[in-house]
């Protein structure tokens, strides 16, 4: 790949993922590839803790207190990965940040955090097997320029705009055949294990599922790269694409669901005991997820808009609930073959950082396993009407921030530096947004 880069005089992007899930890095000429692979690239450590607009967060302890010192970023891939949708030949390298002085992991880096949780599973002889499901909206091409969802895309097959709900519609996907064919092709080029494509509840809303993998960190890599891919391919087709949690106030929100099971050192699924209910270890993991769901809500719903998803009857959970084959709960145990016995975590929005979502999901489950926690009775039927005995999830951004900052679990399992840095970013974002007066306030009160 390095020879190909040099021959075609191309560039490559090296980037890390900040705590908001935004990509931060540098565009580097092909001639610099060997140096980058051997020596890494320096970036300020404070980049990890930027707010959502890319501003320094002065209260996170990484800026003036350290002299805004550098970390060192090393690629996680052995060779650059093509960017097929780029107008000029280009490649990309996903990287991870380390301390520049002693080479130790820099743990506010969300990928490093997920690596540390997976390592704790390995110490116990367990391997998480993970699959992700990401929902997104395709928008008219004007949406990006206007920075708001003007209208959905046009079905190229029949010329009609996708303005109505048409869940599981094959015709909707037929009308966007060239777009999805390019997505499928580019996923194969980049090694992203895309599986099924589904038309979802919103107009122009789709979901693409990933195949399961026994490498949870790689699963998060794929999700990050997939988000970039969808937006890049959409631009080539003069579309917009968004993973915003709730782009339309009265249409379906976009979620990020996580399926996971656990293998022992012999390759056996420890969530399976031959019964439909699953093993005691599955019950322990569910209990851990429920116990810490409110503390982790800021990770699952990191932005102001994120909380618009959580409405009764909207297929987004409002209580820390669980059940078997029930899509109204937060933690669902799908009907499956015994070997595929697994947990589906249904809380996170598509706007969440995949590394952090997987890190806190796996950490909460691990605590349940280690402490041998027991879950309450599973819910049968409508969880929105039957979840009074379960803990309600924080339904506002500032409430979720308070729960996050006060969480002993997150301080223990993901570390106080992460809690401080991510919490400070969210507090700064809230100050910025709440410091603005909206159009509706002028219309109503002026």
From TrEMBL:
One GO biological process term: polyamine catabolic process
Record flagged with keyword Transmembrane: no
Record keywords, A-Z: Ligase
Molecular function in Gene Ontology: glutamine synthetase activity
Domain GS catalytic: 110-446
Superkingdom of origin organism: Bacteria
Classification via InterPro entries: Gln_synt_N_sf, Gln_synth/guanido_kin_cat_dom, Gln_synth_cat_dom
Pfam families named among the record's database cross-references: Gln-synt_C
PANTHER family assigned to the protein according to its UniProt record, in alphabetical order: GAMMA-GLUTAMYLPUTRESCINE SYNTHETASE, TYPE-1 GLUTAMINE SYNTHETASE 2
Protein name: Glutamine synthetase
Species in which this protein is naturally found: Maribrevibacterium harenarium
